Amino acid sequence: MNSAYLYAAARTPFGRFGGALAEVRPDDLAAAALTGVLAKAPDLDPALIGDVVWGCANQAGEDNRNVGRMAVLLAGLPVSVPASTVNRLCGSSLDAAISASRTIESGDADVVVAGGVESMTRAPWVLPKPSRAYPAGNVTAVSTTLGWRLVNEAMPKEWTVSLGEANEALGDRFGIPRERQDAFAARSHQLADKAWNDGFYQDLVVPVPGVDLGRDEGIRAGSTPEKLAGLKASFRPDGTITAGNASPLNDGASALIIGSEAGGRHVGLEPIARIAGRGVHANAPQDFGFAPVEAASHALKRAGITWSDVSAVELNEAFAVQSIACVDAWGIDPEIVNARGGAIAIGHPLGASGGRILGTLAARLRETGGRYGVAAICIGVGQALAVVLENVTA
Fold first, then answer.
1. C-beta of residue 104 within 8 angstroms of C-beta of residue 50
2. How confident is the model at residue 131 (pLDDT cuts 50, 70, 90)?
3. Is 90 exceeded by the pLDDT of residue 361?
């Protein structure tokens, strides 16, 4: 089988809910990321792209009806370039990258673009469609921004608790206090701010046409554990999870060029990293935050390495509490985790985050010269994905 390599990565700045990207449609955001990553490979004839695989979690509004294909058309690629859209909720763009890597390995294509998008600002309200015309009772509009909606009554109640309540229970299970969560969150903001000031994201982040947004909008440079300690709990009166130690609602897109060794001749670039291992795992729906533990273990096993070989980890910070629980379970040095900031600061536009962490991981390995890294992401309804990258530039 062929090996699958990452050749280029790009993402838009991540905007706050109702912020700078609020007027940008998700298909236009996707097109911006797609255009941005292809600009890194000016020698690549777009007609040679074998497929585009795009992730999106919502798909209830302007991102409906295969937003990946819409992005291809809006970006001005040849109409012969095909595209699909995949949905594994928060893991959608990492799933897209995994699908792209399998396509490369099987020989079905030499160049595939993967990515993802989410506009949580523009996610619509939806109404259940009545089985008969003119229902006599009230009908409630449901927000599609985040979490369960139109829940099937056959689902056990413990499966359909809010994401926040699920992670409060995880904190109880592992005895993770509010202080650790606030310290983790403050570190995320501080490291993300430093990364931008150091120029780390200079080559990873591409502009969105017509929008004046130069960096991720949610980073609070002056965040400290003491300031975060003053925020009220969001899900329980005596809870530990707040708006400060959980990822916010965001808008953004990410994109990756993945190809075979032969595909590199079309791309015109040297590969950055090899996709060395992949893993997927599922828990009970309410335990989704802890699912990256086993997903990463599967990916490491398939790569033929152990945690002792890993020098960098990008773990999507859905909540500080679940991130801490995963890092503790792995038994790794916390300092190798999200060393350039994480989703609590940078943001978590659901369908775009997997592409973000994979691109960031490759850049960190290239920066430090480390050989192996792990990207992992928890996914609502009990799942997680992980990918092992091998640095081929060292």
1. no
2. confident
3. yes
Residue 83 to residues 2, 100, 230, 259: CA-CA distances in angstroms? 22, 11, 46, 16
Q: What is the pLDDT of residue 135?
A: 82
- What tokens were used for 227? 């300031």
Q: How far is CA 18 from CA 116, 124, 249, in A?
A: 20, 13, 9
CA torsion 342-343-349-354 (nearest 10°) is 50
pLDDT digits (tens, 9 = 90+) for 38-51: 999 999 999 999 99
In this prediction, residue 133 carries a pLDDT of 86
* Contact indicator for 389, 372 with CB cutoff of 8 Å: yes
CA distance 6 to 245: 32
Q: Which residue has the tokens 């962490």?
A: 357
Q: Which distant-in-sequence residues (6+ apart) come within 8 Å of 308 by Cβ?
A: none
Whether the model pTM is above 0.70 = yes
Residues carrying an active site annotation:
90, 348, 378
The overall average pLDDT reported for the chain is: 97
SS (H, E, C) the chain: CCCCEEEEEEECCCEECCCCCCCCCHHHHHHHHHHHHHHCCCCCCHHHCCEEEEECCCCCCCCCCCHHHHHHHHCCCCCCCCEEEECCHHHHHHHHHHHHHHHHHHCCCCEEEEEEEEECCCCCEECCCCCCCCCCCCCCCEECCCCCCCCCCCCCHHHCCCHHHHHHHHHHHHCCCHHHHHHHHHHHHHHHHHHHHHCCCCCCECCCCCCCCCCCCCCCCCCCHHHHCCCCECCCCCCCCECCCECCCEEEEEEEEEECCCHHHHHCCCCCEEEEEEEEEECCHHHHHHCHHHHHHHHHHHHCCCHHHEEEEEECCCEHHHHHHHHHHHCCCHHHECCCCCHHHHCCCHHHHHHHHHHHHHHHHHHHCCCEEEEEEEECCCEEEEEEEEECCC
Sorted by where each starts, the structural domains of the chain and their CATH numbers stand as: 5-121+248-391 (3.40.47.10)
Q: Does residue 394 surpass a pLDDT of 80? A: no
Predicted confidence (pLDDT) per residue in 219-231, tens digit = 999 999 999 999 9
Asked whether residue 128 carries a pLDDT value surpassing 90, the answer given is no
